[in-house]
Amino acid sequence: MSSLSRELVFLILQFLDEEKFKDTVHKLEQESGYFFNMKYFEDQIQAGEWDEVERYLSGFTKVEDNRYSKKIFFEIRKQKYLEALDKQDRVKAVDILIKDLKVFASSNEDLFKEITQLLTLENFRKNEKLSKYGDTESARNIMLVELKRLIEANPLFRDKLTLPPFKASQLRTLINQSNGARPPPPTNAPLLGPIPKPGAFPPLGVHSPFQLVVSPSPSAIAGWMTSPNPAMPHAAVSPGPPGIVQPAGAAAFLKHPRASSGVHGMDDQTDDSEHIMKKIRAGQSDEVSFSSTTHLPNIYSDEIPKTVMRNLSQGSSVMSMDFHPQQHTILLG
């Protein structure tokens, strides 16, 4: 692994230790093999947790790696074997002898035979080499001194017995610094800017002589159709295409015609348009008014009149038909 990965593991180990994740700390130490925690190793030996001692040690070295490693594993397994004999647990002692200590027979067969003969003794302290063996706790402490010497001499543990000097909570500090240097997250803004609201139509003026079209209500049409003699000047009606409604303010425009043409005609028409629009905005009424109670615009239709207004008996059949001279929607026959 790279040096960057190594430093990152150290930072994580520091963080886990500060957060009291003890089991996770030692698991990462053993799996990474970057830092051998001597204090933890000693605690496990003094507690007699032999399986954990070997499991933790296996993350850094194996029995066959070198003579230092072989001696370390031998001292641990020999102590486990002697404690089983001291408790008179022969079955466990034999199991340790076969599974754990037999691996050293190839390198020192005489030593393995001597260890095996301890099974025949009522008290293994009768062996001259083990006559000074005290209680379990003191024996473990003596073994620890030897193990520390072997570990420090083992080249596989070089640069793994101390952690690099880090400030307290270094990982948390680095994360906070990176978060502070990071730009603020983008807000959930639309991809496009705000769509402006459509404004009101510009006021009608010189360049826009457009006039509004007012649709008559059905009741007004019915009243106009039933009016017997509406007083509508014929001159106020101007020809136009069917379906177009004549604005009420157009009468004033027709009352003051201008005879000029060309460019002057366009200027005059523009002036008239401005005059009409000013009167429309101010709500003024035109000089020309309709005598009917309902001031309705003329409505042109392509349909033939179908409503019979009045039957006049002339004593003879109808020979011709024509529209009423004033009411153009009434057909006379």
From TrEMBL:
The lineage of its organism: Eukaryota, Viridiplantae, Streptophyta, Embryophyta, Tracheophyta. InterPro entries: CTLH_C, LisH, Topless_fam, TPL_SMU1_LisH-like, TPR1-like_2nd. The keyword Repeat applies. This is CTLH domain-containing protein. Keywords: Repeat, WD repeat. Pfam families: LisH_TPL (PF17814), TPR1-like_2nd (PF21889). The keyword Repeat applies. PROSITE patterns: CTLH, LISH. Residues 34-92 form the CTLH domain. GO terms for biological process: regulation of DNA-templated transcription.
